[in-house]
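Worked example 3 (structure in, sequence out).
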């Protein structure tokens, strides 16, 4: 158990370290008006706290930094004392944080299937619909640099780049600022992405560094295929839904491969309104006993994916159309916020 003075000194070190990120010298601690002791006493107490494992002394001439145990001690005292924590300066909106793109797609598909009692199929936005939100360039070791890319959907991509010689920390800091300035807001599949990394006005050293980290951005657009979310397959296969029983295996194969479903939904995206295909209007033989109701969703001037239901020809078309239209409207609102540049 620490004395009140030691607790105050430890708290002061933690507070100063959190503020500056630098070792805290004893003179800074001694200047605290709440301490009724001189610099020599402060130094002795700091030494004791270091012996207790609550502080560390990275260099002989440097100040102290709190250890994990030091942080834990201060936090535990804060919670046990029941002190009132400062109010947040801004209101925290958790709407998008609680529901990322993947969760939204799954929730939409499940709800759509339940409401219509049909097979629901939703295509997620392709990867190249997202944009670069932030880039971090971090020096892990003198010859190793980590590039971290955060997209507008919250996805994180990283790449470790190694060098033959020690990397100048100033060059690393410059690269982070430069990449954010040049690439923030650009689409992951944009053709100009690579060109933005090669500015003829840069020095040979800067260009060489950017060439080494460029693969981190090239890999972002390798997989731009749509992702499909399905729910309600059992509803589609239940007795009576597929009139031509001989087509059941073809339907199952269609659902397993999904390539044909993606092609069909891309066709739906070309329709200005609701896409409806009934029975033999469908190009695929496996769909000749089924009907499709679909429509696109996305940004005001760009569709990013499609919402659809598949069921028997004897479906409630009015209900299916209304439900699909409403689901697309809600998804459009969601992705418009999620893909907006911060």
């Amino acid at each position: 158990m620490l004395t009140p003075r030691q607790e105050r000194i430890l708290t002061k070190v933690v507070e100063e370290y959190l503020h500056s990120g630098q070792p805290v010298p004893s003179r800074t601690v001694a200047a605290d008006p709440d301490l009724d002791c001189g610099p020599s006493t402060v130094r002795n107490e700091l030494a004791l706290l270091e012996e207790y494992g609550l502080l560390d002394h990275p260099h002989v001439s440097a100040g102290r930094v709190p250890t994990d145990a030091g942080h834990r001690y201060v936090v535990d005292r804060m919670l046990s004392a029941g002190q009132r924590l400062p109010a947040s300066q801004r209101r925290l909106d958790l709407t998008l944080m609680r529901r990322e793109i993947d969760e939204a797609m799954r929730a939409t598909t499940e709800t759509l299937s339940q409401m219509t009692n049909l097979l629901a199929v939703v295509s997620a936005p392709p990867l190249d619909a997202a944009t670069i939100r932030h880039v971090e360039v971090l020096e892990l070791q003198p010859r190793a640099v980590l590039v971290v890319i955060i997209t507008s959907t919250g996805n994180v991509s990283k790449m470790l780049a190694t060098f033959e010689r020690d990397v100048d920390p100033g060059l690393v800091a410059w690269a982070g600022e430069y990449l954010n300035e040049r690439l923030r807001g650009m689409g992951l599949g944009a053709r100009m992405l690579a060109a933005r990394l090669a500015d003829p006005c840069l020095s040979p050293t800067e260009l060489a560094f950017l060439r080494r980290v460029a693969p981190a951005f090239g890999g972002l657009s390798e997989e731009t295929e749509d992702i499909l979310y399905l729910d309600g397959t059992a509803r589609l296969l239940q007795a009576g839904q597929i009139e031509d029983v001989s087509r059941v295996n073809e339907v199952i194969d269609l659902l397993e491969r999904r390539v044909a479903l993606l092609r069909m939904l891309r066709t739906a995206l070309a329709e200005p309104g609701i896409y409806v295909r009934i029975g033999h209007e469908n190009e695929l033989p496996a769909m000749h006993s089924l009907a499709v109701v679909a429509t696109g969703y996305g940004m005001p001037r760009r569709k990013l994916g499609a919402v659809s239901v598949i069921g028997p020809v004897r479906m409630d078309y009015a209900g299916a159309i209304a439900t699909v239209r409403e689901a697309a409207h809600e998804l459009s609102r969601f992705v418009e916020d999620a893909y907006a540049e911060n």
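Notes: The longest strand covers residues 302-312. The two ends are 47 Å apart (CA to CA).
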